[in-house]
Structure formats: C-alpha cells, structure tokens
TrEMBL record:
<feature type="domain" description="Phosphatidic acid phosphatase type 2/haloperoxidase">
    <location>
        <begin position="64"/>
        <end position="170"/>
    </location>
</feature>
<dbReference type="InterPro" id="IPR036938">
    <property type="entry name" value="PAP2/HPO_sf"/>
</dbReference>
<feature type="transmembrane region" description="Helical">
    <location>
        <begin position="129"/>
        <end position="147"/>
    </location>
</feature>
<dbReference type="InterPro" id="IPR000326">
    <property type="entry name" value="PAP2/HPO"/>
</dbReference>
<keyword id="KW-1003">Cell membrane</keyword>
<feature type="transmembrane region" description="Helical">
    <location>
        <begin position="62"/>
        <end position="84"/>
    </location>
</feature>
<dbReference type="GO" id="GO:0005886">
    <property type="term" value="C:plasma membrane"/>
</dbReference>
<feature type="transmembrane region" description="Helical">
    <location>
        <begin position="31"/>
        <end position="56"/>
    </location>
</feature>
<keyword id="KW-1133">Transmembrane helix</keyword>
<keyword id="KW-0472">Membrane</keyword>
<keyword id="KW-0378">Hydrolase</keyword>
<keyword id="KW-0812">Transmembrane</keyword>
<protein>
    <recommendedName>
        <fullName>undecaprenyl-diphosphate phosphatase</fullName>
        <ecNumber>3.6.1.27</ecNumber>
    </recommendedName>
</protein>
<feature type="transmembrane region" description="Helical">
    <location>
        <begin position="154"/>
        <end position="172"/>
    </location>
</feature>
<dbReference type="GO" id="GO:0050380">
    <property type="term" value="F:undecaprenyl-diphosphatase activity"/>
</dbReference>
<dbReference type="Pfam" id="PF01569">
    <property type="entry name" value="PAP2"/>
</dbReference>
Length: 173
C-alpha cells in the first residue's frame, strides 16, 4: 500500500511540474493571480450582498446556506491541513511561488474548497448560473497550481470537499 501512495505522490508531483510549466503565460499576464484573488472570502460576501440588494428570488435561502456552509468549511479544511501537514510545492520542487500563501500546508486547497462550495451553493439557488460558476471555480483551482502553491491533488480534494459540504448544507436547508 505504501508503494501505491508513493507512486500516486510521484504522479501528482510530475503533473504539478507539467502544469506549472504549461501555465507560465498565466503567471506572466497576472491572470492566474487575479483568478486566484477572485476566490478570496470578501468576494463571496459581496456576491451575497448584491443578490440580497437585488432581491433575487432565492437569495435569502442562498445566504443562509452560505453562512452555514462556510461555518463548516473553514474549520474543516484548516483542521485537515494541520492534521495532514502536506508541504507546499516549493518546499519539495524547484519552483518559486508567485504569491505567499497564508500557511505552510497545501492539502486540501482552501481556495478550491471555497470556490467549489460557493459554486455549488450558487447553482443550487440559481441554476442558470451553473456553467459560469463551475467554470470559474475550476479556473480558481487551476490558478492555485499555476501560482505554485498547490499540487493538482490539493485542488481536486478541495473541489470534492467543497462540493460535498454544499450538498450536505443543501440537503439540510
């Protein structure tokens, strides 16, 4: 079993190297930086505020779900990071990260978790936005690899975790 995980880690690191090289233009244009920043917390609150101000049907339920979901998500992903303690790529690979992340550990990606959580909640309340928000969440996740702060498995785990939390909250509320 140990050999299996060693091979999986090696594949993840090779995939990271390839993606990091392949996304150089995203870094040079600063597009990766802006995509990553769009996944920061204040923008979620801003979207919820606009939905409430515009009195979009379903916005109150969306806000309730978002509050509960993020109350679950934040301590959960932070707890997992501190429990699993996977070093970020630049500590194991010969890459220089473009941004300085908030902490040392990378698994799971908090940005990918939050972006997919938010996208799933938006889609549950406003289904017409599905392609836009899932596309945006995927771009946030890819930007984290492009910036050198996450491995592909970090963002995949974040996408799964965020989507699962959203599904749980939607089932509850």
């Amino acid at each position: 079993m140990t050999q299996f995980f060693s091979r999986l880690r090696a594949l993840d690191e090779l995939t990271f190297d390839w993606l990091f090289r392949s996304t150089r233009s995203l870094r040079k244009s600063r597009l990766a930086f802006w995509l990553s920043r769009s996944g920061d917390g204040p923008y979620y609150a801003l979207f919820a505020l606009f939905a409430a101000i515009a009195a979009v049907e379903g916005s109150l339920l969306f806000i309730q779900r978002a509050l509960l979901a993020f109350a679950i998500e934040i301590p959960l992903f932070m707890g997992l990071k501190n429990l699993l303690r996977r070093d970020r790529p630049w500590l194991r690979r010969k890459v220089k990260p473009v941004i300085k992340p908030a902490d040392r550990f990378s698994f799971p990606s908090g940005h990918a978790t939050a972006a997919f959580l938010f996208a799933a909640l938006v889609i549950a309340s406003f289904p017409v936005w599905a392609p836009l928000f899932y596309g945006w969440a995927a771009l946030v996740a890819i930007s984290r690899v492009a910036l050198g702060v996450h491995y592909p498995s970090d963002v995949i785990a974040g996408a799964i975790l965020g989507t699962a939390i959203a599904a749980l909250v939607v089932a509850i509320l």
